[in-house]
Amino acid sequence: MRIVIIGAGFAGMYAALSAARLRDIEGVSPAGLEIMLVAPEPTLVIRPRLYEQNPETLTAPLQDVLAAINVVYVQGRAEAIDPASHTVEVATTNGANKSLSYDRLVVASGSQLFRPNIPGLAEHAFSVDQLDDAIALDRHLKILAGRPASPARDTVVVVGAGFTGIEAATEIPARLHTIFGAKANPRVIIIDRNEAVVPDMGSGPRPIVEDALRKLGIETRLGAGVASLDTSGITLSSGEHIETATVIWAAGIRANPLTAQIPVERDNFGRLIVDRDLRVPGVADVFATGDAAKAACDDAGNFALMSCQHATRMGAFAGNNAAAELLGVPTRPYHQEAYVTCLDLGEAGALFTRGWDHKVEMVGDGAKKTKQEINTVWIYPPRAERAAALASANPERVTDL
C-alpha cells in the first residue's frame, strides 16, 4: 500500500507526519504502508516570513525529519494527476519523468500569487509570494542603495491592503533605513481596490492598523486599481502616476493549477471542495488539504483560510485519514473551531485577534512578541527525532494557536 503526498509546505509536511504517526500506532511497517512525499526540494519554506529581509535564511530542512519517520522523499515536481489510473507524473530534477502509483493521494500542492493580465505587471512587479520572489525583491532593494536618491528610488508601492500587503508595507521603512541609511526618507504607498485596509478583518481591528500606517508615514490609495506598470513607475485607474522603482504585488492568491487536473468542483480560488474527512468527493482515493482545499472548519459556516495556521491542522487530518482508510481504522473529521490572526505592523508593533469576528486581544509590543514567537518557533518543523516528530502530528493536538 502506498500514500503519495504532493507538496512539502505546511500541509504536506504535516500530512506526512500524521500518516506516519498512525502507521506507527497501528504497528504497520514502512514496507506495509509506504508514504512518499513529492516536492522540488526537501525543504519547508517559511512562507509567512517572506516579507522580511534576508529571505534566503527563511527555510527549514526536512530530509532528516522525513528519514526519522520513514517517509520516502521523491525529488521532483508533480505535473500530472491521473485519478483513473491512480498515478502521479513527476518531472525529476535530471529532466526525466517518473510515474508514481498510489492507493491514496494527498494533494497539498499549495497556492501561488494571482497575477492578472495588467500591462507591465509581469516585467516590473516584485512579490513576496515564493522564496525566489522574495530573494529577488531583497536583492533589488539592496542594489537600489547604489543609486542616487530620487523619488523613484525612495518610493515603494505595495498593491494589496490585505494581510500580506500590510505586513510587507509596514516592514519596508525599517528595511530601507537599514539599506539606505538612517537619514533616508523612504515613501511607502499602499494601493487597493477596496475602500478600506484589511477588509477581511472587519471594522474592529481596522483603526489599529490605520494608526500604525500613520505612525510609519505610509500613504494609501484606496478604491483605486492598477492600470499599468513601466520603467518609470505605476499608473492607477484614477490616472495618477507614481514614480517608483519598486512595486510589490500582494493582491490575492489562487490554488496551485494542479488542482484543475482533478475533474471535480472547485471554488473561485481553484481549491478542491472536500468533505469533512478532507476527501475529494467524486474521485476515488484522493484527499486535498491546505491551500488546495476548501474545507469547513466547523458547523457554523466558517471555512479554512489559505494560511499556514489552517494548513498545518488540515494536513494532519488529511494524512491521518488517508492512512486510516488503508489501515482499516476510523477516520477523524477535520475541525478547527479556534481562529486567530497576528498581523505584523513593522516598527509600529503588531495586532493579535481571536475568533472569526476578530476580537482584539493584544496590540503593540505584546502582540509583537507573540508574532516573533510564532514566526521563529511555532511554525517550524519538529526536530528530527522519531518520537517527537510523530507526537507533533496528532491531528487533535496540532495547535490552532
Automatic annotation (TrEMBL):
Q: Which GO terms describe its biological process?
A: aerobic electron transport chain
This protein's cofactor list reads:
FAD
User: Is Mitochondrion found in the keyword set?
Assistant: no
Q: Tell me which residues make up the FAD/NAD(P)-binding domain.
A: 1-315
Per the UniProt entry, the Enzyme Commission number(s) are 1.6.-.-
Q: Name one Pfam family in it.
A: Pyr_redox_2
Q: Which principal EC class is assigned to this enzyme? A: oxidoreductase
Q: Which InterPro entries match?
A: FAD/NAD-bd_sf (IPR036188), FAD/NAD-binding_dom (IPR023753), NADH-Q_oxidoreductase (IPR051169)
Instruction: Show the stretches that span the lipid bilayer.
Output: none
Drop me one GO molecular function for this one. NAD(P)H dehydrogenase (quinone) activity
The UniProt keywords, alphabetically, are: FAD, Flavoprotein, Oxidoreductase
Q: Which family does it belong to?
A: Belongs to the NADH dehydrogenase family.
Protein name listed in UniProt: NADH dehydrogenase-like protein Rv1812c/MT1860
User: What organism is recorded for this protein?
Assistant: Afipia carboxidovorans (strain ATCC 49405 / DSM 1227 / KCTC 32145 / OM5)
Q: What is the lineage of its organism?
A: Bacteria, Pseudomonadati, Pseudomonadota, Alphaproteobacteria, Hyphomicrobiales
